[in-house]
Amino acid sequence: MKNFGLDIWGDENFIIQGDTININHASKPSLLSITQEIREKGYKGPLLLRFPHLLEKQISTLFKTFEKAKQEFKYKGNFQAVFPLKVNQFPNFVHALMDVSKNYNYGLEAGSKAEIIIAMTKTPLGAPITVNGFKDKEMISLCFIAAKMGHNITVTIEGLTELETIIQVNKEFNEDAETPISPKIGVRIRLHSSGIGIWAKSGGYGSKFGLTSTELLEAYEMLKEHALLDYLWMIHFHIGSQMGDIAPLKKALREAGNIYADLKKRGADALGAINLGGGLAVEYSQHEDKQERNYSLREFANDVVFLMQDISKRKGVEEPDIFTESGRYIAASHSVLVAPVLELFSQEYTEKGLRLKEVNPPLIQELYDLYNSLSRARAREYLHDALDHMESLLTLFDLGYIDLEDRSNTEILVNLIIKKSIALLKNEDSDELKKLQDRIQEKYLVNFSAFQSLPDFWGLEQHFPIMPLDRLDTKPTNPASIWDITCDSDGEIGFNRDLPLYLHDIDVDTEEYFLAFFLTGAYQEVLGMKHNLFTHPTEAVINFNSEGNYTIDNLIEAQNIMDILDDLDYDTYLMDKTLKYNIEESVHLNSEEKRELLGKLYLYLSENSYLKTIQAIDEER
Ligand code: PLP
Question: Ligand 1 centroid to 239 CA: how many Å?
Answer without folding.
Answer: 9
